[in-house]
């Protein structure tokens, strides 16, 4: 696919998707959702970690409400089923770790996009806004799934009903995101985080994702069985053998992602 609304690059096993519609603060349109989906799926085969970030001081301002879109003609339910759901499933189900490097405002569906990743790292100036009620809608794009699990029902309801702008530091305190970092160090920090994962045991990372996603609905017995199955897979990898050898030799492990 020839990308028009994003840039996509892979270097040192790190795939970076950069949302690139700066004139509209990287708002999501049909083309961008398709391109993100395509790039996320490609990254699963071409890299060992995926980063989603934005250009020009904004992460993503949410659904593009300009151009040819109007409240009278926008079929929100169709767009969610046909365009958002494939993108969100691609991120959630990715076999490699995914990071949202939130460099600015993440509003509406843009906040949901960030929260769909495995790890959210934000610049201190970033804001997370459940802005839906400002235009007579409710949170979507997985926002009602992620928020109560991350911050609890009381905070999820308050953030969604009032549409308050949540600063990155508070989002980290609440457990909405993993961490925030000073703006002048932000890029170097998320790049170092991504490189750490790109050099790690990819199969074990995938097992962690599967196990933690399943834990909310599994019984203890189901979770124990899943852990055993996934750990059995990890135990057959080159990286497990390398990890044990490195431990016994008192040296850093050199994982290959296999």
Helix-strand string: EEHEEHEEHEEHHEHEHHHH
The name of the CATH topology of the largest domain is 2-enoyl-CoA Hydratase, Chain A, domain 1
Question: How many domains make up the 3D coordinates?
Answer: 2
Low-confidence stretches: none
Tell me what the CATH architecture of the largest domain is. Alpha-Beta Complex
Structural class: alpha/beta
> Can you summarize the main beta sheet?
6 strands, mixed
Helix count, per DSSP? 10
Which strand order do you get reading across the main beta sheet? 1-2-3-5-7-10
Mean pLDDT: 94
Radius of gyration: 19 Å
The name of the CATH superfamily of the largest domain reads 2-enoyl-CoA Hydratase, Chain A, domain 1
Q: What amount of the residues lies in strands?
A: 15-25%
The end-to-end span amounts to 28 Å
Helix content: 40-55%
Shape: globular
Provide the descriptors you would attach to this structure in a database record:
alpha/beta, 2-enoyl-CoA Hydratase, Chain A, domain 1, Lyase 2-enoyl-coa Hydratase, Chain  A, domain 2, 2 domains, six-stranded mixed β-sheet, four-stranded mixed β-sheet, 10 helices, 10 strands
Summarize this entry quickly.
The chain is of the alpha/beta class and 258 residues long. The chain contains ten helices and ten strands. The chain is 48% helix and 17% strand.
